[in-house]
Specification:
The structure is a single chain. The chain is mostly helical and 65 residues long. The chain contains 4 helices and no strands. The protein is globular. The chain starts with a helix and ends in a 6-residue tail after the last helix. The N terminus is likely disordered.
């Protein structure tokens, strides 16, 4: 009922907690989920945020608080 805003995540900026980033990246990198599946499972609406999560995971930055 909210149209594009509902589909696109409201157009606002969102930050993802450490656990969400690790879980999403691990599901993709280690557990074989597609990018789309991992993003949907963890509620990540932005491809840019997704790329950051995986990049940080692969570089080990997300794993060290």
């Amino acid at each position: 009922s909210n149209g594009e805003e509902a589909v696109m995540g409201g157009g606002g900026s969102r930050r993802y907690d450490w656990e969400t980033k690790v879980a999403a990246a691990r599901d993709h990198v280690e557990n074989g989920l597609t990018k789309t599946e991992a993003m949907a499972r963890h509620g990540i609406a932005s491809i840019v945020d997704w790329q950051r999560c995986v990049g940080q995971f692969l570089r080990g930055r997300v794993l060290v608080r």
